[in-house]
Amino acid sequence: TPSNSSAASDVYKRQLRLSTKEEVYLLARSEIVLGKFREGAQDVDLMIYDPALKERHCKIEHFYKENLISSLVPESPVKVNGKPVKEAPLKDGDLVEVGESAFHWKVISVT
Questions:
Q1: Residue 9: which region, alpha, beta or left (left: phi > 0; alpha: psi -120 to 50)?
Q2: What is the per-residue pLDDT across 77-104, written as a single tens digit (0 to 9) for each?
Q3: Which end of the chain is more exposed for a tag (fewer CB within 10 A), N or C?
Q4: Long-range contact pairs involving 27-34 (C-beta distance under 8 Å, separation at least 24)
Q5: Which residues share a beta bridge with 78?
Q6: Distances from the Cα of 92 to the Cαs of 65, 66, 68, 70, 95, in angstroms?
Q7: Which residues pair with 31 in a beta bridge?
């Protein structure tokens, strides 16, 4: 098993940010689940106030230089740059739409 210092350095290598015009979210894990806001929910990493979202709507997996978004709800695909997708790679600057919400995927730094 890796030492604690090795595990900590792996986390720092995966830090990405998800931002809107008003907010920036630091994503420091290899998998992030996005979904509808629910009081006390612990199975969603980033909750969004959007009635069109499902409880666990999609997930973003990120590795050193590769990022992937996947819909977790077959009847509600996510859109990347206006195109509905079940799964798609994410690149810096992509417009992601989930439910009635949207954000730009922006890699600020990978250290």
A1: alpha
A2: 899 999 999 999 999 889 999 988 888 8
A3: N
A4: 27/60, 27/62, 30/61, 30/62, 30/63, 31/59, 31/60, 31/61, 31/62, 32/59, 32/60, 32/61, 32/62, 33/58, 33/59, 33/72, 34/58, 34/59, 34/60, 34/98
A5: 85
A6: 10, 10, 12, 17, 9
A7: 61
The predicted model scores a pTM of 0.73
User: Which residue is associated with the tokens 């417009």?
Assistant: 95
Distance, in Å, from the CA atom of 88 to the CA atom of 90, rounded to the nearest integer, reads: 6
- Cβ–Cβ under 8 Å, residues 93 and 81: no
Residue 107 identity (one-letter amino acid): V
